[in-house]
């Protein structure tokens, strides 16, 4: 269908270049059906949503909801008052008190030790389980996958009670020297951390090209050399992400640790819980801020090492 432009009947020669559409054509151009057809033909790009005010307000609300409590905790750790209600001034004395608190420092050391050991073992176990489920076929594989994923879906309170019954029935020794006395908590943390690593690493392995392994074997590489030089470099981003996830889960776990810890194996979350039962003091905020800073530093270091290793990897010819 062709539309012809309508000219005003008494338009001057100087206005001959100004074409005014007739009312029928104007109604067609302004119709919602045409607008909808143009939108469907040229859909909104994903990045264009960021320019819309409702999307910006939604993102702002989400960020405020997530990070406002953390910013408040960090700010009130410098508050010169025993009560975290009114700002009384800026001070570092509660950081000094938290540093000189032997029981709090011992709990903090226990949490870091358990988190490091648990992360190391969970990363190895999770990677091996991921490779097993990705590469091999064996009877009852689906059952094994479901059992391996149980620690992810069952409630932590059930996991804690189960671990308490297990260590009580197995006669786990008590009174061991440090760090052997942290063994029960470490085993409990490994049991619920390595499935998360397995899920992350297996998702990474889904994008692996099996022809690379075949090419390495054709060039004379052994099974171990293929795994070390071909498969592990591809798994590295998943390993780093899984390790960070396992470290975070172990560091801030309270429920399972509460059931598996003893009087001499108090961790930082359990210690903070015992302190906040009376009142939330700036000393607790200072210790929590230190924990947040350590977590951010370790995460930044891990991401920097990952980016450095990726930038140093030569591009394939």
Care to describe what's here?
There is one protein chain. 68% of the residues lie in helices and 0% in strands. 23% of the residues are buried. The protein is globular. Residues 1-5 and 7-16 have low confidence and may be disordered. The chain contains 14 helices and no strands. With 317 residues, the chain is an all-alpha fold. Helix 4 (93-100) crosses helix 14. The longest helix has 34 residues, at 102-135.
Q: Key features?
A:
317 residues; mainly alpha; 14 helices; 0% strand; disordered N terminus
Radius of gyration in whole Å, from Cα? 30 Å
Ends: how far apart? Answer: 55 Å
Measured as a percent range, the helix fraction is 55-70%
Which series of helices and strands comes N to C?
HHHHHHHHHHHHHH
Give the uncertain stretches in residue-range form.
1-5, 7-16
Strand content: under 5%
Mean pLDDT: 78
Secondary structure tally, helices:
14
Backbone structural class: mainly alpha
- Number of separate strands: 0
| Morphology call | globular
Instruction: Give a quick account of the main beta sheet: strands, pairing sense, barrel closure.
Output: none
Quick synopsis:
The chain is mostly helical. 68% of the residues lie in helices and 0% in strands.
């Amino acid at each position: 269908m062709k539309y012809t432009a309508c000219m005003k009947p008494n338009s001057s020669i100087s206005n001959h270049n100004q074409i005014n559409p007739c009312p029928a054509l104007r109604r067609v151009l302004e119709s919602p059906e045409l607008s909808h057809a143009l939108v469907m033909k040229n859909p909104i790009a994903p990045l264009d949503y960021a320019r819309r005010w409702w999307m910006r307000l939604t993102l702002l609300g989400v960020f405020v909801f997530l990070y406002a409590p953390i910013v408040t905790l960090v700010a009130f750790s410098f508050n010169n008052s025993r009560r975290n209600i009114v700002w009384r001034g800026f001070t570092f004395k509660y950081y000094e008190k938290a540093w000189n608190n032997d029981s709090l420092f011992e709990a903090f050391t226990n949490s870091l030790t358990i988190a490091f050991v648990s992360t190391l073992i969970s990363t190895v176990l999770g990677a091996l389980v991921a490779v097993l489920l990705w590469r091999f076929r064996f009877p009852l594989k689906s059952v094994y996958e479901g059992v391996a994923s149980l620690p992810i879906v069952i409630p932590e309170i059930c996991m804690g009670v189960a671990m308490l019954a297990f260590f009580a029935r197995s006669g786990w020794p008590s009174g061991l020297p440090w760090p052997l006395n942290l063994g029960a908590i470490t085993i409990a943390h490994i049991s619920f951390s390595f499935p998360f690593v397995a899920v992350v690493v297996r998702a990474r392995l889904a994008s692996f090209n099996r022809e690379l392994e075949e090419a390495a074997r054709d060039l004379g590489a052994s099974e171990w050399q293929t795994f070390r030089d071909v498969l592990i470099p591809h798994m590295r981003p998943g390993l780093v992400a899984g390790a960070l996830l396992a470290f975070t889960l172990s560091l801030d776990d309270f429920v399972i640790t509460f059931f598996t810890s003893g009087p001499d194996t108090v961790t930082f979350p359990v210690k903070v819980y015992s302190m906040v039962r009376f009142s939330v003091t700036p000393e607790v905020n200072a210790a929590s801020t230190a924990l947040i800073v350590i977590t951010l530093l370790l995460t930044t270091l891990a991401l920097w090492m990952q980016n450095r290793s990726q930038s140093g990897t030569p591009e394939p010819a």
